[in-house]
Amino acid sequence: MAIHAAPAASRTAAAPATGAAARPARRRRVDATYYLFLLPTVALFTLAITLPAVMGVVYSFTDSIGFGEYRFIGLTNYAVLFTDPAILSSYGFTVGFALVTVLVVNVVAFLLAIGLAARIPARAALRTVFVLPMVVSGIVIAYVFSFLFSTALPRFGSALGLEALQTSLLANPDLAWTAIVVVTAWQAVPSALLVYTAGIMSIPDEVYEAASIDGASGWRQLRTITLPLLAGYVLINVVIGFKNFLNAYDVIVGLTDGGPGTATRSVAMTIFSGFQGGDYAYQMANATIFFLIALVLALLQLRLTRGRVAVR
Amino acid sequence: MSRRVDVPVTATLLLCTLAVLVPLYVTVTMAFKTGEQAVDGNAFSLPSPATFDALAEAWRLTSFPRAFTVSVLVTLVSVVGTVILSSAASYAVARNWDRRLFRWSFFYLLGAMFLPFPVLALSQVRLTGLVGLDNPAGVAILHVMFQLSFSTLLYTAFLRSLPAELEESARLDGATTWQVFWRLVFPLLAPMSATVGIFAFLASWNDFMMPSMITADPALQTLPVVQNIFQSQFSSNYDVAFASYLMAMAPAIVVYLFTQRWVMSGVTQGAVK
């Protein structure tokens, strides 16, 4: 621990053009330590991520059932995939669910961010509460909501005499997906809210002051200043959110486990079904298609965020 | 300009906090109810009498000490592994950006962004089984690998903003690359490591998909996974189930309350700019 930042910095003046910068023409030798820092990680990554990815694509062209012998059958799995009602319905559900959830999450997060930027007391405490759902385990909070939807709400409905509430939302094939949207949104609003808050803070106060002097109302300022200036942030939240919601799994397992019937089976759940019933290679093909969709969305996200990614 | 409090907005926001607080309130109150009161149909009542019986029973049914230990170990390896591997790799990349190998390795590591777990699950489960990593150790390694792209991005951006003069003068004093990194650069990375570490913690602690798929032995499952016994075997013991949910979510909430500054800045650093 002999190196301290301050004295080291003061000595830089005494070390002028003697370093690598002095002879840019010659390629400098790379210290072996740098290879030690990078290559084991790259090797591990190749074994843990790249190898399974390649293996998945290769198996998708076979009739493997997960063990034993198998043959290459070309594009057969893919051809079947596009006409399989179970697969098509899982994509239909997942995409529809992701679209609705993106809409709900962004409307709620945007309004909360605007609200938190207003003249309010205890701003920090309110923000702490609104961000909290982000740190709660998805499966556990889904179990909690499952109880609320299936037991607490119906009894509450009976007590109030409200017929619509009296049966469990989760047992209704046409409405169970709304419960999944609610719980997913509950978890996803915080990160979208934080992104919008950063966006709002990036707008200089002077813009609003000038607008106030010109007599623009609060609503008008929101419509003509805040919303257009946050358009880029909306786009980022929409793309990131959509990409994440396509992977929906935990919350669905906790709420409906894909039911009633197969009404809420997501793509991730169908892929995992490849462990049973001899569908191994077939679901590998499904995973490969799913990967291509994720790839397009990730490239879109990279473009929008100019090289940065977001966590959830 | 007036500095008055905006009353309608404040009232609306307070009302909105109920959406967050009510599910948590139900979890806490149910955990302290008696078995009899838990099934009486009123989810929103306070426990009377309040009892620790449900917590004790949940502790026993989920083998809490064992599941908690597995969760802690997986999370610990995942956090330490993510911070060390991604900071060292980022340092190598950032300081050798003119070299093709380093530049390409960086983009290669970012590739995991395109590969969510469901895409890789079928092969990963098979491979971890083949090499004897169908256990919490395998889960921890995969957690580190899936965190690499995000963490490497954050670290390299931060490393580019560090002045090169600091390192150059340390080298003139005879420090090796190894020493420069561990004694000078790594401590300077501390704020970024806090953000990277907290996200690795949350992703690992709360994960359900990977441990439930990868770990073959149910006795070695993490806390989120063992909660499923209340969906099957003990599905009507609401008080015990909620006591168990409370014990599973409490650690992450406590960590969040102390580290929210880094949690919040991490989201914006990741998404914005």
UniProtKB/TrEMBL annotation, chain A:
Name listed for the protein in its UniProt record: Sugar ABC transporter permease
Transmembrane segments: 33-61, 91-117, 129-149, 175-201, 222-242, 280-302
GO biological process, alphabetically ordered: transmembrane transport
Span of domain ABC transmembrane type-1: 91-301
Protein keywords: Cell membrane, Membrane, Transmembrane, Transmembrane helix, Transport
Family statement drawn from the similarity comment of this UniProt entry: Belongs to the binding-protein-dependent transport system permease family.
Superkingdom per UniProt: Bacteria
GO cellular component, one term: plasma membrane
From TrEMBL, chain B:
The entry's keywords: Cell membrane, Membrane, Transmembrane, Transmembrane helix, Transport
Signal peptide as annotated in the record: none
PANTHER family: ABC TRANSPORTER PERMEASE PROTEIN MG189-RELATED-RELATED (PTHR43744), SN-GLYCEROL-3-PHOSPHATE TRANSPORT SYSTEM PERMEASE PROTEIN UGPE (PTHR43744:SF8)
Compartments it resides in: Cell membrane
Residue intervals of the ABC transmembrane type-1 domain: 68-259
Membrane-traversing stretches: 67-94, 106-125, 137-159, 180-203, 240-259
The protein's name in its UniProt record: ABC transporter permease
Pfam families (alphabetical): BPD_transp_1
Gene Ontology BP, a term: transmembrane transport
UniProt source species: Promicromonospora citrea
